[in-house]
Amino acid sequence: MNRAKRYHPLLLVFDLVNFVKSFFVFFIMLFVVGLGSSSNYFKYGRYVFILVFVLSFFSKIIGWLTHKYELDETSFRLYKGLFTKSELTVPFSKVQNVNRHTTLFHRIFKMTSLSFNTGSAGEDAEVKFEVISRAEADKMENYVERAGKPLPTGLDDDLPSVEKEEQETLPGRTVHFKPTKNDLLKASFTSLSFLFLVPLLFSFYFKIDDIFELEEEKLEGAFSYLLSSWWVLAMILVLIVAVSVAFGIGRTFLKYGKYELSSDEKRIYISKGMVEESAFSIPKEKVQAIEITQSSLKRLLGLAKVKLTSAGSISSGDDALEINTLYPFLPVERAYEMISEILPDYRVTEGMESLPKQSFWIRMLSPSWVWLAATAALYYFRSSIPFWDGAWWVLSVLLLITVYGMRLMDFFHTRYVLNERFVQFKKGSLTTTLFVSKRDKVIEVKVTRNVFQRFLGLASVGTVNRAKPIRHEGVDDVPVELADAFYNWYIGRTKEIHVE
Amino acid sequence: MYVENDAPQQRLSEDAVKVWLIDEAIENVIGFVILGVLFYLDYRFSWKEWIGWILIGLVILSVPGAVWSFVRPKLLYKSWRYDVTEEFLQLKRGVLKEEHNLVPMTKIQSVATTQGPLLRRYGLYTVTVETMASSHAIPALPKDIAIGLRNQIAQYAKIKEVEG
Question: Which regions span the lipid bilayer (chain A) (predicted)?
Fold first, then answer.
């Protein structure tokens, strides 16, 4: 692996497919719809299109010819540039997590894409191989992981030994979770994914409307016919519900059908997706924090979503699949268990403290700027609000009730605890989030106290963690004693860190 | 009680108050000139009614703001404290809202001294510190203290944690 190589030639095909995908609409407009048209707009548009196409294709070819990569003992070396040559070195030790994404394109050619994400900002934050053969990807992932170790033993880069090694390491993995059919069915109902059909139907309707310009009157006639007989209506409702449910289940199966959470001594692996496969892996010691989220529905059903925070970026390219989440429909108890299984260094403390009485008052009495602004706006536009004259103040009162309802919920949900090396914050109104981090992963802390908090003996505490983007967490209106303990707790981190 | 008693001890230069006062005065003059121009334009081109209201609102907010900006520097100076140990940079400041920061030396990426025209007049420097997540500034320190502090932080920040 120590000779500079070009990227896989299929990268060019991949780029071509992407180009076609993103300019498909333009293409249809210019060459199909506007073919007969002799307007200058279409005529020159076609030339510009061809020019752009040719130029971008040539630039891709030149890019392919000049971009090279090589892996030495400790780092990636990336070369690029035709006239201005650049050489970039990315040490393996800076890699925070590894993402693999296999789109349909990749599957057709038995390829995959692989990216090594570092914590740095900007363009060079990831080392990405858009198209790479699976064997090569496995080999590289293994190599990078191995080289990161302090004592690299037998770091020969000849192919057979690495491949043998890899086969040996695979059985070392423990599978922690794989959803059963039952789990998936449950998940598809709790995720409410069957509701996704509604917006889809709407957009479908509008698209049809755009193309065929449905006549409103005819449509209304059809509707009134449907509504006139109850059994037709009932049939349609049943049909819609059935399709929605089928759609929701299908969606969940596609997304989580092949979900697998596993780990070995060093790393955690998550993979999912039936058609488009994604895989994520992170070394255990690079998990910056854990986040456990529960929506209201999940709270009722006792389910939770666990997310691992990494300092590297999570989404690879345009897919925003939440690949760093453990299976999002885990029973809470099982979720806690699993955290201690996969991350023995972490522990979720269950008994947490709630806010004191004084913070109830400070939270209730502080003015709601949102409500004030909204009320002012409602008052100003009161004449143009439909329904009736007094509507503006009814809306304002409703908003106030909502604001206070949320505040109340947040107050009762808020919990915090400092436990030896860990800090835990829980908060949220409808959706609650429990944040757990270790003090050696917290990179900065702050305590603030405004006039009222000083008067009531309260303070706000906050932590900063590495993530993308930087993660600020904290709790407002905790007793000042806790703020002191928090400061001292953080000072104690010097015992745990190791300096180079 | 750490936040209340064991707070950092080092203070800024006393000239900080003067620098901030001049700074605030300049800002206020500019602000009021802009408001005046807007009022004139509003009157001259008879803008919509609500714009007038917003302008009046701005004046109502700016007047106490201006008064406050002449009281604040003295209080802010009194509240500012910082300290540097081998392990942490500690900051404390704020009049109405008090803020305490604790930044590990090992997380500091860079440290610099800067000086604007006002600071130069009084021979002062601002020390700025960048970490992976944020940047902090200790404003208005006398030259030798500022440079000494910068060098000291640079010295301490050389040590890096094993990133795990």
Answer: 12-35, 47-67, 187-208, 228-249, 360-381, 387-406
